[in-house]
């Protein structure tokens, strides 16, 4: 499983240091050994370099992701952070199109597809979030909205593959109503969405699909057991290194 902790804007340098010290002290390497699980920490841009150096220094088996990248390659875009910038400081991938970015920063499906293309061209793993709002769901529009979000990403992924770029595309199904709400999607909901995404688009290489939304210690094992699910994207619960490690142990 691809297990991604999305730290959002909750960490400080000091807190990252203490988090990693717990993982080192409790033996993350041996907990993961032989499980096939891959662990990812997604930090704000300013901490990527520190995080990457600390993970290496402590010998922790973890990948570093950004939480977003600019839709521009380079140039006069004050305050933006490019794909090249995150690569320079040790990130190997980025979350893209998180619902908080779509909602608070008006990111469109096209922006997300552009960012996906830039990541693929630069050799950075895109982890693209998609998911319906509570209103979409109540109106019976779940699959319609998901198709609109995923279609431009599928197109970009197909083009990249045609251009010989062989980087895996990860998709995270994150129903907006499930994020931080304590209400996770049911296994049946997730199964339905995964089939729609895999069957309805002409993927040359099928994406790996993760689930995110109120994953916690009580539901982590049953969600992870879903057939064809490739991983989990977790916010609040994995801000605590003990819960993160206990979750890994519940999975192995
Ligand atoms: C998220 O924001 O990506 C997320 C899954 O959050 P939480 O686990 O807190 O619902």
Detail the topology: elements first, then pairings.
Elements (H helix, E strand, L loop, with lengths): L1 E5 L6 H13 L2 H5 L5 E6 L4 H10 L5 E4 L16 H6 L4 E4 L2 H6 L4 H14 L2 E6 L3 H5 L3 H21 L7 E4 L13 H14 L7 E5 L7 H5 L6 E4 L6 H11 L1
Helix pairs in contact: 1-3, 6-8, 8-9
The chain binds phosphoenolpyruvate.
The site of phosphoenolpyruvate has 13 residues, from strand 8.
Characteristic terms for this protein:
252 residues, alpha/beta, TIM Barrel, 8-stranded parallel beta barrel, globular, binds phosphoenolpyruvate
Describe, in plain words, how this protein is organized in 3D.
Helices cover 44% and strands 15% of the residues. The chain has 252 residues and is an alpha/beta fold. It has a single domain (2-251), classed as Aldolase class I (TIM Barrel). The chain is globular. The relative contact order is 0.15. The model has no long low-confidence stretch (mean pLDDT 96). Bound molecules: phosphoenolpyruvate. Residues 6, 174, 179-180, 212-215, 233-237 line the site of phosphoenolpyruvate (PEP).
Strand order of the largest sheet: 1-2-3-4-5-6-7-8
Gyration radius over CA: 17 Å
Query: What is the fold named in CATH at topology level?
Result: TIM Barrel
Mean pLDDT: 96
What is the H/E order? EHHEHEHEHHEHHEHEHEH
Looking at the chains present, what oligomeric state does this protein adopt? single chain
The CATH homologous superfamily is named: Aldolase class I
Strand content: 15-25%
- Major sheet: size, sense and barrel closure? 8 strands, parallel, barrel
